[in-house]
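Recall from the previous lesson that a structure prediction takes nothing but the amino acid sequence as input. Here we apply that procedure to Acetylornithine deacetylase from Bradyrhizobium betae. The sequence below is the only information supplied.
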Amino acid sequence: MPSSRPDRIRTLLADLVGFDTISDRTNLPLIAHIESYLAALGVKGERITDETGQKASLWVTIGPEDRPGLVLSGHTDVVPVIGQDWSHDPFKLIERDGKLYGRGTTDMKGFVAVCLAMVPEMLEAKLATPIHLAISYDEEIGCVGVRPMLGEVAKKKVKPLGAFIGEPTEMKVIIGHKGKHGVRATFHGLARHSSIAPDGVNAIEYAAELIVEIRRRAVKLASEVERNSLYDVPHSTLLTSIVHGGAALNIVPDTCTVDFECRGIGITESREVTDAIVAWAKAELEPAMKARNAECGIDFEEILDYPALDTAADAAIVTLAKSLAGRNDHAKVAFGTEASLFASMADIPSVVIGPGSIAQAHTPDEFVEMAELEKCAGFVEKLIAHCVAS
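The prediction returns the following tokens.
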């Protein structure tokens, strides 16, 4: 492993990017690689494996285990590259003009690489307050992997003081983000030859009524702007995102699925909005379908759920984050993170702060600037000093 900090970060990031950890694939080779890296430094982590045995999170403690510590948290999964126009292999790190390109460089293997690169400094310091590394899986499909890990953390005798979730914020201190609730509506109609369409029950047409109602409510939410909001989009949002239905032009479609989501400002607003839509559809649409044929109707299933984050601006973890980042401002973001689950599941005060820009996340030729990674390393360096002094 190279001795200089920037070279350590580059090497570790190249290693991490080299593992294809799109959410529908195992992350165990990447976790094993991290475990091997830590073992060479004399550090052992706690692996939390999922029910399939194909995914795992890693909880690492550096410093005294009998004292409350501070968490650096990041996820290992990345979004797909299919259909994107990459100019190079997305799973091979390439550096050009101070930018490091590859899938996950910004979201968020860059942050994980920085944390791992700083482990030697953590070990050399005499930490009075421990530093924990929380490395999860399947964040991109609903913050799945962090939940069992937080379940284990909640059982421990000592609860962490706070957590820094390293999603890309350009090292800005983020104290809040919207919650999200996603629902899939499956419409069951009655297929008939299109020449006798009135004898069928058109699943797509009933689904269209739901979509129009979702749009109507979205417009209403957009009119309810939160004044003096710290959010870049200062209101809750609602939209239909995926629709599937129909088999052939000459068949009345008997199935249609509609995926929709709400991102709410309030802690539980997302679910309240989608629950109201489900209730409307059951009261207004489903009876009309069943009146045509008793076997017709709508099934609803939750496909994603996480609460909003709303950390008090004067909370100790916010004050500490600002001190470590060398800034006095704070903000809120529309995108979701695992921070709200640290707060809601384990009662661990959390902020979001990490290198890179959300504008680069999920894009072809995703990149993070080396300067951002070095700023993040400086943040962790100050955290180490804080944990020594405290």
